[in-house]
Amino acid sequence: MTTDTSPTVPEEHHGEVERLRAHVCALHTELTRWNLVTWTSGNVSARVPGADLMVIKPSGVSYEDLSPEDMVVCDLDGRVVEGRHKPSSDTAAHAHVYRARPDVGGVAHTHSPYATAWAARGEAIPCAITAMADEFGGDIPVGPFALIGGDDIGRGVVATLDGHRSPAVLMRGHGVFTVGANARAAVKAAVMCEDVAHTIHIARQGGPLHRLPQEHIDALHDRYQNVYGQ
Amino acid sequence: MTTDTSPTVPEEHHGEVERLRAHVCALHTELTRWNLVTWTSGNVSARVPGADLMVIKPSGVSYEDLSPEDMVVCDLDGRVVEGRHKPSSDTAAHAHVYRARPDVGGVAHTHSPYATAWAARGEAIPCAITAMADEFGGDIPVGPFALIGGDDIGRGVVATLDGHRSPAVLMRGHGVFTVGANARAAVKAAVMCEDVAHTIHIARQGGPLHRLPQEHIDALHDRYQNVYGQ
Amino acid sequence: MTTDTSPTVPEEHHGEVERLRAHVCALHTELTRWNLVTWTSGNVSARVPGADLMVIKPSGVSYEDLSPEDMVVCDLDGRVVEGRHKPSSDTAAHAHVYRARPDVGGVAHTHSPYATAWAARGEAIPCAITAMADEFGGDIPVGPFALIGGDDIGRGVVATLDGHRSPAVLMRGHGVFTVGANARAAVKAAVMCEDVAHTIHIARQGGPLHRLPQEHIDALHDRYQNVYGQ
Amino acid sequence: MTTDTSPTVPEEHHGEVERLRAHVCALHTELTRWNLVTWTSGNVSARVPGADLMVIKPSGVSYEDLSPEDMVVCDLDGRVVEGRHKPSSDTAAHAHVYRARPDVGGVAHTHSPYATAWAARGEAIPCAITAMADEFGGDIPVGPFALIGGDDIGRGVVATLDGHRSPAVLMRGHGVFTVGANARAAVKAAVMCEDVAHTIHIARQGGPLHRLPQEHIDALHDRYQNVYGQ
């Protein structure tokens, strides 16, 4: 619920907010489709372009019950601006990322099992296959352990991604946070992160593994980011 | 079928029993959705509030064939009070838990593969990720091996959970029992138990793993139980 | 197609054959539902009660294309009696089992991955969890390597199961054959075989594993075979 | 879009191209059904019989959005002849295979996790189960690491498959390429490649594994290629 002291959604953003409620809601079906989430864990948000606002999943609502109207609009301090639900318990982390990274338009968070296994050990995923070079441009790095609720997770995400091409970070003992130019890109990074976490885990069970040479990683990443797709 | 010497469902509970038949039946679809059960294994029950009764799955009926009318109403000694089927072969265990734990409103049981693998070795799952601290508040403990049919399983579940925050116990050489304030909470615990059993198994395959510091586990568990959700 | 020299389905069995065509066809959806088969691999057959006939899957037809009319009726020497398709390439093995084991009413065969992994190593699955004692009454044994097409596979299945309570055998370097009083029981055994092959594999990856004491296995198996279900 | 300097689809091939657009589009659903692809990765193509043309997936389009009209017709130098999208970024590799191997009518490419894990280590999959002998006639070989975009991948695929019965090659640090007499056969090989990569990986985790004797591999492969199916 909007509280008296909260800002409200300015009228010029009403249409965009409505569109993003539907878009962010729909993107959550990608988390279940790709088996990244269990029960109510995981969440996606999108920045409202041109406003200090974001649209995010409500806390603890089942995936099959999510509707666009359930999405919560928050300001970039994490306060609810519009919505009938409490926002995700990770709202402060998302908000911090948007404040610190104006280039980021979407954030996703999961406890997907293979990526979280690397996070539990605090071990970066080595860039040993071309699909990793394509999407992540190198290893997927590990961020610090941080308790939920305040700015610590968001700070850890931003600090760890600084200087990395990877849009994904493995938060130690916790799970995955990803960023993107928009929410769909952040969700894609979460999907690909679990995929490569899975493949590299299996690969290493069978014997030692070598990272790709840096020049190949650079060439693959450049091509994928600039040539691939429509 | 109700036998002559069995108690019957008192009239004031008819409405609640009907509601719980539908609810318990529907919760079984969560067991299949999250891949916790194979063929006809696994079961869920709910206590009938204010009565010494519970509603439980019939024995050996396929998940896709379950309807609310198939659910069986038993007293808390495990005797059938109402129902056209034999109740789950785990009925005695559920009944014991309800007798011993007035705070428990729901019980679930599965042989989900990763959790059962820890149970087969008789090894507790160490609390090494925040999702485990959230839901289980520490390690998931191991209970004794016990044969099915009498009170041994129920006694083992109750004795093992005593003094633990975990709503889940790994019964040695057998599988998972979970409890909750209601049946949905017990099912959620079964779902999350398999999820963390999976993630921690994978994590440890890649190298040694450290349990989270107790103070962090305490803070995470307190927040999740009291702040998370709507 | 029926050839001139083949026997035909006697008229008194027409109704039962029609019923079994639908039943065997439907049971193949259990193979895909439980992820036991890939592309066109795997097959199920049922004995026609009171006749020296069986109903079996056609060879190399996709699961989503199977209809009751596609099922093939063969005699117990594996010759086609009725059907517009060639029968499964494992027909000789099924036929041998029916000839040698009058108590068997159904046979299933899969290359399900975990069970086939034990078969590839030629290692029996040790009975370390109650679900295995329930269904298999002990270890799941390993049969000899045998080439497809003649009687060798069927002979290996029958010889290996002799003296075992297990309805499943791991044929070395190949996959799983299961038998049952009827086709549904054989399919159930194939489903449970993969389930326990999976769980015991995971369990052993985490450390040594102990088989259940024989007296417990005996008690569990007796109860499950005689008390469980409706 | 057809460019001015590109060849166009000759009128006598219009019907076949239209049929192949639908067929190739539909085959992509097999990649998702068998969990071989993640997000937009993976692709299938078919040669247009009697023409120096192929039909291939567009680059970076989601699987659930693919329609027959989205497929792209290219010549065997990889230039777009007809289509509203850019073709797959692997088009040059497919085109090279068609130029070098007149017997090949279809090509598939995936990053399926188990097969890619073997590729990441650069290790051939040993032929230790009958399903592998059937489909691959021996080990699945490893090809060289090659950067995407030019002829290197296609050359590596062709050179590695030369002298092998296997229709699949594990491209080092990358993923799987398969060939077939038609596109469906290439897709089947990709599905079976992941299946055996999975099973053999699991098998070897539990202990040493022995390849089947060559004479058995030969007999199995001969039978499967010449007797199996309708």
UniProtKB/TrEMBL annotation, chains A, B, C, D:
Signal peptide: none annotated. Its cofactor is Zn(2+). Residues 22-201 form the Class II aldolase/adducin N-terminal domain. The keyword Zinc applies. The keyword Transmembrane does not apply. It catalyses: L-ribulose 5-phosphate = D-xylulose 5-phosphate. Its EC number is 5.1.3.4. Keywords: Isomerase, Metal-binding, Zinc. One of its GO terms (biological process) is pentose catabolic process. GO terms for cellular component: cytosol. GO terms for molecular function: aldehyde-lyase activity; L-ribulose-phosphate 4-epimerase activity; metal ion binding. InterPro entries: Aldolase_class_II_sugar_metab, Aldolase_II/adducin_N, Aldolase_II/adducin_N_sf. PANTHER family: FUCULOSE PHOSPHATE ALDOLASE, L-RIBULOSE-5-PHOSPHATE 4-EPIMERASE SGBE. Belongs to the aldolase class II family. AraD/FucA subfamily. NCBIfam families: PRK06557.1. This is L-ribulose-5-phosphate 4-epimerase. It comes from Nocardiopsis sinuspersici.
